[in-house]
Amino acid sequence: MKPQDRFYSEGQGYFGPRENPMTETHCNVWDWDRLKMVKVKGTAKLFPPDEDVEVPILAQFADYLSPEVRAVTVDDDGLLAGISTDPEEDDTPFVAYLPFSIAESLAGCRTIQYSRLQNLDRLGPGVDLSSYEDEFGIPQKVAFKFNPLDKPQRLQMAWDEINLLKYLPPHPNIVPFDRVVLEDVESRIIGFTTKYIPGGTLDNTNVPFRFEWLQQLTQLVDFLNLELGIMHQDIAPRNLLIDPDTNKILLFDFDWAAHGKKRLLNDRDDVTGVVFTLYELITNDTRFTSIPHWNRNMDMVQSISEWTCNRELDSDVSRFRKFLNDWVAVRKSDGDMERYFSAANRLTWPDLPTAPDYNVPFELGKTLDGEPIWTTGPRFRRTAMEKGQYCFRWERPPQENLLNKAKSGMRYRNCEG
């Protein structure tokens, strides 16, 4: 996992006027490495709105905190002034994971219990490199994708992606779906695995790019869009691999995908995605990736007369551009979106069901008369635990422990030799 991807801040909460530098301020920071929430407490002087200075502050000492620590207090210089293990400081959200038994659309999927997965590495936020032994005792190396946060959009994206991958027909240019991952106590769906493809993604500028891979990518996009009615909506070098066994390009990461009109976003069509992807692959120019999709269009790069080549290619740049231009002309002709909406073999699946836990009422507060206010829906994990609800816990040691364990194993094997 890249260091800049490790932490996610939910912003600043002020207990008084934020203009007053003495106002007490709390910032909940999610650690994707240790999979836990840590509350960072200080004053408004240190934590101005929307600057997320709490992330680099926590990063300095996050690996040295005990797993029981729920909050840290820092002084106005950002130095650690205190820690708390009080459970009431824990604002980790409760995620009402769906029981596999009521996920009818996933019936027939192969499953694996979370305890059988061995964590080998952290590939990125919410994605691990893992291994397990299958029913025949054969070791399998997989990418394990999961969502530990109770965000409505994230829950919907996770549901859509796992169903999409389940219903996709096998394709030589799509990373194969493997299994649904279930927690061990109540067999709730906490993620899924796909085949692990070694070698890294095409955002590695040292990987040469072949003309046939552009052909495979455009054919795949046509298949997804026009045959299945699926819009990936995140075509980019970071989501493309090269299978070392077949030497074919592979697309993965379907969490932004739309099916028909559902979750379809303006300016995230796959044709535009291919144009910007090829431009970046050839030139290594990444400045357009920071532009929001709604503020960019393919003419920004198509109108550039010369794409300066900064990557090894197997053909001249002009051949890549001519093929791309011809393909874009066909796809952007009248009726292209109509063909997408009327795809002959459209994939469909049911909406995300509501987990039973979500409807368990809890006390949110009290009225002016002292009467309890009862509600259902999102809650803290500590609130769910007080109600006796089962809570799956993601916490784990930092990645550094994995690296040290691997190094120790290497030294042990060398001594044996």
From TrEMBL:
<dbReference type="GO" id="GO:0000781">
    <property type="term" value="C:chromosome, telomeric region"/>
</dbReference>
<feature type="domain" description="Protein kinase">
    <location>
        <begin position="117"/>
        <end position="417"/>
    </location>
</feature>
<dbReference type="InterPro" id="IPR011009">
    <property type="entry name" value="Kinase-like_dom_sf"/>
</dbReference>
<comment type="subunit">
    <text>Component of the EKC/KEOPS complex composed of at least BUD32, CGI121, GON7, KAE1 and PCC1; the whole complex dimerizes.</text>
</comment>
<dbReference type="GO" id="GO:0004674">
    <property type="term" value="F:protein serine/threonine kinase activity"/>
</dbReference>
<comment type="function">
    <text>Component of the EKC/KEOPS complex that is required for the formation of a threonylcarbamoyl group on adenosine at position 37 (t(6)A37) in tRNAs that read codons beginning with adenine. The complex is probably involved in the transfer of the threonylcarbamoyl moiety of threonylcarbamoyl-AMP (TC-AMP) to the N6 group of A37. BUD32 has ATPase activity in the context of the EKC/KEOPS complex and likely plays a supporting role to the catalytic subunit KAE1. The EKC/KEOPS complex also promotes both telomere uncapping and telomere elongation.</text>
</comment>
<dbReference type="InterPro" id="IPR000719">
    <property type="entry name" value="Prot_kinase_dom"/>
</dbReference>
<keyword id="KW-0158">Chromosome</keyword>
<dbReference type="GO" id="GO:0005524">
    <property type="term" value="F:ATP binding"/>
</dbReference>
<dbReference type="InterPro" id="IPR008266">
    <property type="entry name" value="Tyr_kinase_AS"/>
</dbReference>
<protein>
    <recommendedName>
        <fullName>EKC/KEOPS complex subunit BUD32</fullName>
        <ecNumber>2.7.11.1</ecNumber>
    </recommendedName>
</protein>
<dbReference type="Pfam" id="PF00069">
    <property type="entry name" value="Pkinase"/>
</dbReference>
<keyword id="KW-0779">Telomere</keyword>
